[in-house]
Amino acid sequence: MTATPDLRTSRLASPDLLRSVFRQHAAGVAVITARGDQGPVGFTATSLASVSAEPPLISFGVGTAASSWPAISRTDHVGVHVLGEHQQDLAATFARSGADRFGEPTVWREGPEGVPVLDGVLAWLMCRIVTRVPAGDHRIVLAEVVLGDPAGAGRPLLYHQGRFNGLRE
């Protein structure tokens, strides 16, 4: 039996409240990549969403303080990589500030439009950025799918309670 939410323990909106609530929300894990002026850039995202089937559009959020934001703010194309549960280390590398994200052991190659494409992912897309929408300290990026491949093997990586996890049966 589930309990009714207790309104007496509710808290006013704050960054901490939002983070606490979203720790309860399991999310798929993706890595967004782009070609930057100084080389490839990328970051781990749990905000990836399908927006529209016609035309095929996706969205993701990126912080304006993120090291990848300058490249994402200027580029026309991005790579979107859905990670498998075997890729917890890759997700952690792309989430870590100051990490050499494209050095060993990351395996990648340059794809269409110069977009970095990661090897071994469950699925990937190459997308053309349509717009960037201001949203507080982030930008919501809307991008149209140009091409991709859903044929990777394995099960998806999830992010929950501040940790990367696989699905349980």
Automatic annotation (TrEMBL):
Key word Oxidoreductase present: yes
Chain ranges of the Flavin reductase like domain: 22-166
GO biological process: pyrimidine nucleobase catabolic process
Keywords: Oxidoreductase
An example molecular function term from Gene Ontology annotations: FMN binding
Lineage top rank: taxon: Bacteria
InterPro entries in alphabetical order: Flavin_Rdtase-like_dom (IPR002563), NADH-dep_flavin_reductase (IPR050268), Split_barrel_FMN-bd (IPR012349)
Name of the protein in question: Flavin-dependent reductase
Species annotation: Streptomyces aurantiacus
